[in-house]
Each structure stands twice: as structure tokens, then as C-alpha cells.
Amino acid sequence: MPSNLLAIVFALASALTIAWGTVVRHRIAEEAPADGSFKGSPLWNAISRPRWWAGTGTALLGYGLQIIALGFGTLLVVQPILVLSLMFTLPLAARYDGRRMYNSEIFWAGLLTIAVATLVLLGRPLQGSPQPPVEKWLPAILIGAVVLITVERIAQHQSNRNKALLLGLVTGALFGYVAVLSKAFVDIFVHSGFLAIFTAWESYALILGATLGTIVQQYSFNAGALKNSLPAMTIAEPIVAFTLGYLVLGEKFQVDTIIGWAFMALALITMIISTVVLSRKGV
């Protein structure tokens, strides 16, 4: 039975564990510059280190908590809360670096929290279709594949800073797709049973998307400072997930006045600006 309160609790737990995993994996990427060979590649340097597996294990635990959250609530509730992983990343990164957080970081973190709370509490999202037909998925998948492959190719010819930014966008968008596929996966399990997930194409698309997202994320971490890639990742994921949640799953916010939508738009803009500012200040 849907329960947005339980969804919020598990989404917050997910955001915290994802934050710790992000800090660990980025520090490993910084310590392991590529030398051009396979064994010197970002992926090999990462997976050859036990700490990377610890960080990845934590990220997987965070993803599991996200799946549970999606089982209780809508995608439009869970995704904004996951943006708070950035707020958790900042103090963890500061502690890792042996420094204190600045007052400006605390200010923007507060604004981010207010923006997320506004989207969730004012929006009061409604559940969508548990199993949308494949015809609704195809345009979103095809368009997304063309756009993301193009951006990834462009990124390979950019400076390290811009490469990290563009790969961060690709990573965030991939995880936006993963979030929507995760919601579909959960709905299939709830409405059709355990065996149905093995015959559903969404299950295999979910595995592929999560694998690609993890690989591209590691390359984006290696390309430059976390402040170059993290804002793009953190913002692209909910925006893509919001869009697909509306267009594919049919989830909707319960806002029916101009003033209400104005506050929602203001909250979304505040969330984006706060995320970018925090990412560049804190890591």
C-alpha cells in the first residue's frame, strides 16, 4: 500500500549511503590517474582497489533502499529527496579532507532542503500506471540513446573540466532512466509477482542502464574534480526522472492553481541553483 512517509524515510537513508559511496569512489579516481593502457584506465584502477568495492557496495545498498522507497511511494516523491545526497556528500567530503564546512555551504544546504520539501509536500504526487505499454517507452529510450551517445562522443574531445561536466550529465541522465525503470520493476513485482520480473524487459534494461551509469560515472570522476561532475549528475537525474515519470508512467503532481505551480517552479529552480552552488563550493 502506498505510503509517502515510508518512502521519504527510505529515500533519506538511500541519499545518505549514496553520498558516502560517492566520496569514496571519487577519492580513488583522484588517486589513480590514467596512463593510457588498460591497466592504467580509470575503470581498472578503480576495480583493483578494495576501497572501491566498499564504496560500490555502499552505493548498491543505497540503491536497494531507493527500490524500497519506490515500493512505498511515487517517483516524484523519491527523486527530489535523493538530491539531498549532495547535502550529505558535503560534510562527508569535508571530514575526509580534514576541513570544516563554511557558513555559505550551510545556507545553500538549507535552501536545498526547503526546495525539496516544497516539491514533495506541495506537489503531493499521485501514482501513475504500474505497467505502461512498451509503446510509451520506445520513443523515450530511442531519443535518450541518441542524445546521450552524442554527448558522450563530444565529451571525449573536451578539456578535462568540460569532459567531467558532460560525462556527469550522461551519468545523471542514465540514472534518471534507471530510476524510472526501477519504479516499473517494483510495480511489476508488486502487481504481477516474483516470476514476472524474469520475463519483463524492464528488468534487463534496468541492469544495463545501471551498469552503463556506473562505468560512465567512474570515467567522469577520473576526468576532473568532483565539483565539475557532481552538479550535472545530481540535477540531470531528477529532471530526466521527472520527465519520464510524467510522460511514461503518468505520475502527476496535485497542483491545480497558478500560484501553486509558481511555487513549484520556484522550488525546482532553487533546487537546481543550490545544487550547483553547493557542488562547486564544497568538493
Average pLDDT confidence is 81
Number of domains: 1
> Beta-strand percentage?
under 5%
Cα(first) to Cα(last) distance is 39 Å
Number of DSSP-assigned strands? 0
Low-confidence stretches: none
Please tell me how large the radius of gyration is.
18 Å
Question: What general outline do the C-alpha atoms trace?
Answer: globular
Major β-sheet annotation: none
Topology as a string of helices (H) and strands (E): HHHHHHHHHHHH
What percentage of residues falls in helices of 4 or more residues? over 70%
How many helices? The count is 12
| Class by alpha and beta content | mainly alpha
Protein name: Multidrug DMT transporter permease
Keywords: Membrane, Transmembrane, Transmembrane helix
Organism: Corynebacterium alimapuense
Describe this structure in words.
The protein has 283 residues and is mainly alpha-helical. The chain has helices at 4-31, 42-47, 50-72, 75-82, 85-97, 103-123, 134-155, 160-192, 196-199, 201-223, 226-249, 258-282. This is Multidrug DMT transporter permease. It comes from Corynebacterium alimapuense.
